[in-house]
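Something for you to look into today, if you have time. Could you write out one complete protein record for me, on any chain you like? Leave the record below and I will have a look.
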Amino acid sequence: MSQNVLMIVNPKAGKAKSKKYIENILINLKNCGCNVNLEITTPERNATKIIEEHKLKDEKLIVWGGDGTLNETLRGLKKSNQDAEIAFIPKGTTNDFGHSLKVSFDELAVSKNINNYKVKEIDMGTIDGLPFNYVVSFGLFSKASFSTSRKWKNRIGKAAYYLNGSKEVFKKIKQHKIKLILKDKTIEDEFIYGSISNSKYMGGFPVYRKQNVSLDDGEFEVLLAKKPKNFFSTILVVIKILTGNLNDEHITFFKTSELKVQFPYEMDLSVDGEYGGKKKEFEIKLDEKKTKYLVP
């Protein structure tokens, strides 16, 4: 029995090598009994618009791209009130969600084995009603995720983020007065960094390697960092976060299913590694539906 597949490809993702593999992927999918509709994203027509234009009915989705392309896909499904099983081929720079989901990084693996993949349902978060796949962050290092040039990302990969982000450590690090409103309490303090996530990796690092993090437990992981008294202590806190050692008086970690975040002024947000706009406040909740991923 044939299977209809919509394949969305971001040709600029990662090192922009999709052309090398597309022909073989299409051959493999045909051999698996798939009828494939191939769509290539452009700046004017991203994955969100492509999904909105299609009437998905019993179709599988294959997404070739980074975490940002996956975010666009989820927003397209949400906005058009559609549902689909997603096979993700992670070809971004850090591929945090791909690592957390434990999908194959072999470009041809999905096309060879799609009929043998199983469905795994994952929590999907929303920020002010719009889906995000794995992280919303603000403060220190957050801008590096969306301000690093694609030229350098394609040229040297993750190192481009690290070089861009490291500049912030040598500037005057700003603390931000942040208010977090939870179901049972309110946290109000000054922090240099904050993130709300559903991932074991952030920025290419195993931030939650020592924590019990599950992608389908109905909770987000919240991480906040305060500014130590001196430069070397700040470096130590950064290293602890990046290596997953969160036992420090300057680091706050907890889990929650929903929260509101308020700032005294507009802050730049990073959403799934892309620019999430400026916000003075936002609300994080779980979406009613879980996202269906096809995994080995």
Summary: The chain has a mean pLDDT of 87. The radius of gyration is 19 Å. Residues 138 and 246 are 18 Å apart (CA to CA).
